[in-house]
Amino acid sequence: MKSPLILGKVIDQLQHSALPEEERNHLVQALQDDLRTQQLRTVTLESDIQPYNNGSGIYTVHAFAGSAQGAKVLADLAGQALLNWDRDRALEGLRRSEAGFQAQAKQVERQLSSATSQERQALLAQQSTIQSNLVQLGLLEESVTGVLSQLTTAVEPGAPISPRPLRTAALVGLISLMLGLIYSLFRTLLDRSIRSEDDLLALSLPTLAVLPQVRKRDVLLSGIVRAGRSAGLYESVGYLRVNLMSELRRIDHPIVMITSTAPGEGKSSLTATLADGFASSGQRVLVVDIDLRRGTQAEVWEKNGETANWVQLVGHDGAQTTREALLDPYNVQVLEAETNVHVLPAGPGLQDSMQLLNRADLTAAFALWRQHYDIVLVDSAPLLALADGLVVGKHADGVILVTEAGETPLQAVKTAVSRAKRNDLKLLGAVINKMNVSNSNSYTYSYNYNVRS
């Protein structure tokens, strides 16, 4: 079938067929490609040989075209070309014998022109025998057949094998489902971020609270503190406050440092909402923004919309930023952000913050400031971004590590916990922040436990 003796004949016959020109040209091009690549796609031959029946069997020709009529015409032409090739192969021996007898006849005819009377009689007899043999060969050529014989002509297909919309849709759906499952599996294996309390338990790190994600629109309109009062964040911060005070119940006027593994995980927002929660229960709170490179507490409370009033903490006049207060802790003013909440802003960003922390007497500063408040909340730089938190954390009674649900890598938490323990920080536990409530089973009861009317 791959031979030009067959496909070439099919192509010639196809060009003179009654098929529409567009389909005819398409089939001719396809057959020429099959012939060039020696890979049959347009016409194929299927054999069913019976080895125990003298090697006989059935050959089936399959043709593929753009229409049922085209497929039938192509199959018939291919079958006929195969039969013609088989017959020509059978005639090959007879044709060679015929050529031999014709050569003998010409030789006898040349000899007759110069033969004697006695020789002439013998040559005429030989000539008669040769002519008789040629006649017999001619009769054999007309009746000879090859090994192959046609059982039936091509059957026009009742339905196309392609395209099949239902089958294609089913296959696409099945493949999409499989790809989705594979993608989910790989994402689960590769995505090692904090998603639940179980991830933290594996690190022997207790979860102090799981805080829901607050809508950005609410934060932009009213600030994180007010947005937290009216959202599910209020109950979660209350849960955090109870857990925190349980851990620090034996310490008077505790100092708590709040940090994270990296920027953007919500430590500053948590510090502000936690301060608001303590203040609502009547406790006096001092918020110290000691993230000297990228402090944000001033912006957080400014968005809250409260009146900016400065009050004297200790001494006379003096510092109004943390960077200044650390150098002169006995003369400090603080911002009254709301009732029972005072804030000491970080001030302009400081590149070499570690140098300032090394010069400051943190022990004296915190000991002096804690005398005036029930609790001091320290907003520190991320543990993996700067070493500032490791220095400040040694002067705190406890450290809270803030993580972002679905974003904070598990390895980052491992590294932060390792650094905290190596520097003897009192790590109280972690908070999972910005949890999508619809995708979590943690603490969902508190978000729906509304007042009965």
Element layout with pairings:
Blueprint (H helix, E strand, L loop, with lengths): L3 H12 L5 H17 L5 E7 L7 E7 L4 H45 L4 H27 L21 H26 L6 H5 L5 E6 L3 H15 L2 H15 L7 E6 L6 H14 L4 E5 L7 H7 L5 E6 L7 H4 L6 E7 L2 E4 L8 H7 L2 H9 L4 E5 L8 H6 L4 E7 L5 H13 L4 E9 L8 H4 L6
Parallel strand pairs: 3-11, 4-9, 4-10, 5-8, 5-9, 10-11
Antiparallel strand pairs: 1-2, 6-7, 7-8
Explain the overall architecture.
The chain is of the alpha/beta class. It is built from 16 helices and 11 strands. The chain has a 9-stranded mixed sheet, sandwiched between helices. A two-stranded antiparallel sheet has the order 1-2. β10 (398-404), α15 (410-422) and β11 (427-435) form a beta-alpha-beta unit. α1 packs across α3 (68-112).
Helices, by number, come to 16
- DSSP strand content: 15-25%
Q: Please estimate the helix content.
A: 40-55%
Kindly report the average pLDDT value. 84
Overall structural class, as computed from helix and strand content, comes to alpha/beta
Quick one: overall form? rod-shaped
Please outline the major beta sheet: 9 strands, mixed
Strand order of the largest sheet: 3-11-10-4-9-5-8-7-6
**Termini, distance in Å?**
86 Å
- In the predicted model, the low-confidence regions spanning at least 5 consecutive residues are 441-448
Strand segment tally? 11
What are the secondary-structure elements, in order, as H or E? HHEEHHHHEHHEHEHEHEEHHEHEHEH
Q: Write down the Rg.
A: 48 Å
